[in-house]
Specification:
Blueprint (H helix, E strand, L loop, with lengths): L11 H5 L1 H14 L4 H9 L25 H31 L8 H13 L19 H30 L8 H7 L14
Helix pairs in contact: 2-4, 4-6
InterPro entries: MIX23 (IPR019171), MIX23_fungal (IPR016805)
Family: Belongs to the MIX23 family.
Pfam family, one: MIX23
């Protein structure tokens, strides 16, 4: 079965390191969602005894058209798919809380204060330069993080919907549960689409 990437320890430093946060999300998505067809194909005829030369003597239908054992589908969902999604949800929710919290350790806070002070002291004559009154203040790192979380949640929603449609098709689900309903049925919690991403 697919091996999930190890989730790093949740901390504000992890959230503010957008590279580390994105790396975990990318690795998790590539291990499970980007390779969903291959992962499901591996459930059709798992190799327990190694290669059987007689298996090439007759043509078999493509694995995409062969049904997957319902037990294997359930096991894949509960052991691989939903835990991967849950780990990503927990990380996004944690970082959304960090983004919504005060940030006394922001290294650029003093620089922003200086820029705002200079802007207040500036004399603006819009007749000479109509654009001189505009100020584009530097965003705080919590604002940048909140924007990143909103973006990644949007990506996550698209990826999960696509993955779930493949799972439903390959596992021959007759019910029309959404992935959120199915996660909840198996005891997983998902609130990745909640609007707790801060500003």
């Amino acid at each position: 079965m697919t091996e999930l990437p190890r989730r790093p320890r949740l901390s504000p430093q992890l959230c503010f390191s957008s590279g580390a946060l994105r790396d975990f999300l990318r690795f998790s998505r590539s291990a499970v969602d980007d390779t969903i067809t291959e992962n499901l194909n591996a459930l059709v005829t798992p190799s327990h005894t190694g290669f059987d030369p007689s298996s090439t003597s007759q043509r078999t239908p493509a694995s995409g058209s062969r049904p997957i054992d319902p037990k294997a589908c359930k096991s894949f969902k509960t052991m691989v798919l939903f835990p991967a999604w849950q780990a990503r949800t927990e990380m996004l929710n944690y970082c959304a809380l960090v983004a919504a919290s005060p940030d006394p350790n922001d290294p650029e806070a003093i620089l922003r204060d200086v820029e705002e002070q200079k802007d207040r002291e500036r004399i603006v004559d819009e007749r000479l330069d109509p654009y001189s009154g505009r100020l584009f203040p530097r965003e705080s790192r919590t604002q940048i993080l909140a924007s990143l979380i909103r973006q990644e949640r949007g990506v996550e929603e698209i990826i999960r919907n696509r993955t779930w449609s493949v799972v439903q098709e390959r596992c021959n689900y007759s019910c029309h549960n959404t992935w959120k309903e199915d996660m909840w049925t198996y005891g997983f919690d998902d609130s990745s689409t909640s609007n707790s991403s801060g500003r």
